[in-house]
Design goal:
Number of domains: 1
CATH architecture: Sandwich
Protein name: Cupin domain-containing protein
Oligomer: single chain
Order of helices and strands: EEEEEEEEE
Distance between the termini: 42 Å
CATH topology: Jelly Rolls
InterPro entries: RmlC-like_jellyroll (IPR014710), RmlC_Cupin_sf (IPR011051)
Organism: Cellulomonas edaphi
Radius of gyration: 14 Å
CATH superfamily: Jelly Rolls
Number of strands: 9
Number of helices: 0
């Protein structure tokens, strides 16, 4: 077993505000993958930017609005949003938000993750 402390840093890129990221270690020996825990203050935003790789945003706690080229949606705990590489998107925290964000050079197998109606 290895127990350590996740490095934590503020995110201000893309006009982001009130965002604190806790970084999990990157995966090795496979498709490049990075996982973060995002803590976004109520009223904060992860600014508009293109997804560099396939990106999954899993909302653990709170309420948020997410935007992509096809519109803006309000989401709550348990929602999973996946953006494709190059897709412009932005997230706003309506309340304090905790989310897990995974980025990969591969793809996400969403077979067991049905889309919302």
């Amino acid at each position: 077993m290895h127990i350590s402390v996740m490095p934590s840093y503020p995110v201000e890129h893309f006009g982001s505000d009130g965002v604190q990221m806790d970084a999990l270690p990157p995966a090795v020996d496979g498709a490049s993958t990075q996982v973060h825990v995002a803590r976004v203050a109520a009223g904060g935003t992860i600014g508009r930017h293109p997804a560099v790789r396939s990106q999954a945003f899993a909302l653990v706690n709170g309420r948020a609005r997410v935007e992509a080229p096809d519109g803006v949606r309000e989401i709550g705990p348990g929602a999973l949003v996946v953006w494709s590489p190059g897709e412009e998107h932005q997230t706003w925290a309506l309340t304090e938000v905790v989310a897990v964000i995974a980025e990969t050079d591969g793809t996400f197998d969403l077979y067991h993750h049905p889309a919302e109606p």
